[in-house]
Amino acid sequence: MKPDASSLEAGKVQVRLIFGPVRGTLHEGEPVSFGLQTTRQEIIFGREQKDKTIFECELAMRISEAAEPIFSGPCANGPASSRFLYLSWKRLSDSPTPWVQRIKIPLSPITRAQALEALKPNRVLHADVTGRRPHETTAVVWQVLEGPIL
User: Number of C-alpha atoms within 13 angstroms, CB side, residue 147?
Assistant: First the structure.
């Protein structure tokens, strides 16, 4: 991320996604892994708890005077104006089509106020996306939570 003269705030924010229990490790009999997809086509596994899985990453962010937050980093997919995260099922075997399914988690609903709040110490951008399905287009509700980063 290159800083520019119009940047008012820049820094790194912690992001946490909650997804209910991970469904299955097989797709049509083929072994798969599930996690947060990076732009390098890798999977970041979550921490499984009794009734949910927690995925975390760090994103670089800048907010210019005239625009909404712009996120970047290894987990920020898509064009700068409409970045998103992917929770994905990936085949474990070598394949020309490694991704079985992907759930898109848009970052665009994060407001300017939330982005500025998330830059403060001990804050995390948090979304519970339990039940979200591939190709779903409903808005994701983001919150800024205070407290220890898990």
Answer: 6
Give the mean model confidence (pLDDT) for residues 81-99.
92
**Which one-letter DSSP state was computed for residue 80?**
G
User: Do the strands 84-91 and 30-37 form a parallel or antiparallel pair, or are they unpaired?
Assistant: antiparallel
First to last CA, the chain: 26
In a domain, 77, yes or no: yes
List the one residue out of 56, 42, 57, 46 whose CA is nearest residue 23.
Answer: 46
Burial (CB < 10 A; 0-12, 13-18, 19+), residue 86, is: buried
Q: Tell me the C-alpha distance between 118 and 41, whole Å.
A: 27
Q: Which helix (H) or strand (E) holds 115?
A: helix 112-118
Predicted pLDDT of residue 5: 47
Count how many domains the chain has.
1
Whole-model pTM: value is: 0.87
Q: Which domain holds residue 87?
A: 7-144
User: Can you tell me the distance from the alpha carbon of 85 to that of 113, in angstroms, rounded to the nearest whole number?
Assistant: 20
| Tokens 């085949």 found at | 91
Residue 12, domain member (yes or no) = yes
